[in-house]
Design brief:
It contains ten helices and no strands. It is mainly α.
């Protein structure tokens, strides 16, 4: 349904009807599918694999595959339906630009809060998710400023949010995995996924077009793996750090007594 709406907006914009002129349909689709793209499943699968639970990790990966295929098939059906009806969506000439830095922080916080509310979280988890999403964007923006690849920048942002989430989760009595997952959702590559699928439709089965489409989808997959790896590594590194800080706090409390 999201793709159908995007195709309709694209057709109205091409016809010169305001206020649809100049709207990027890819942003509409990306915002609509971001919650359907597996976030918690990716982090959970990577964490189980790191911890050595191969069977559980395999089950999560299968679940991830089915969810992703569902999203992909839905988008392809919407694009093909629009093509059959004569409403095609043009490929954008350039990637979707980021807004100003303040707008990126505001958007990330709104997305993280929406994810937390969507999952029925309480006010404490919502606030922590908002804080960690800001840290995620800060880490990502800093890495991009150093000319790192978007996948590496995404991994660094997820790592920062995950480590901080692990350190504060116990004292605030919130689940670290849940708040970390909500925080990294703003970096989920929804635009890249839709771009690759749109290129696949325009390729019409040609080898060159399919190669370009495959490149976009691979970029999206690499970013997703980077997010999962960064979040899982943060959980892995944050556990001993949290234990050390707890031990130091107990020692200081005993000394004071």
């Amino acid at each position: 349904m999201t793709t159908v709406v995007a195709v309709a907006v694209s057709a109205l914009g091409a016809a010169g009807i305001e206020p649809f002129v100049g709207i990027r349909p890819s942003i509409i689709v990306a915002s609509g599918i971001v919650l359907m793209l597996a976030g918690l499943t990716v982090v959970g699968a990577a964490q189980d694999a790191i911890d050595g639970f191969a069977l559980t990790a395999g089950g999560r990966i299968l679940d991830l595959t089915m969810q992703t295929l569902g999203v992909v098939i839905g988008i392809l059906v919407g694009l093909e339906l629009g093509s059959v009806l004569g409403f095609t969506m043009d490929l954008p000439d350039d990637p979707a630009p980021f807004g100003p830095l303040l707008g990126q922080f505001a958007g990330a916080i709104i997305i993280a809060v929406a994810v937390a509310v969507f999952n029925g979280a309480g006010i404490r988890i919502i606030l922590v998710s908002a804080l960690l999403s800001a840290l995620t964007i800060a880490g990502y923006s800093g890495a991009v400023a150093l000319n790192l690849h978007s996948a590496a920048a995404s991994a660094l942002g997820a790592l920062l949010a995950s480590v901080v989430g692990m350190l504060i989760a116990r004292n605030l009595h919130v689940p670290s995995v849940a708040v970390t997952t909500a925080a990294i959702v703003p970096l989920v590559p929804g635009v890249a996924v839709f771009q690759g699928l749109l290129e696949m439709v325009h390729a019409a089965g040609t080898s060159t077009g399919m190669l370009f489409a495959g490149g976009s989808l691979i970029d999206a997959a690499v970013i997703g793996i980077g997010l999962a790896s960064g979040a899982s590594l943060g959980l892995y590194l944050g556990t001993p750090m949290r234990a050390t800080l707890a031990s130091v706090a107990k020692t200081r409390a005993r000394v004071r007594r």
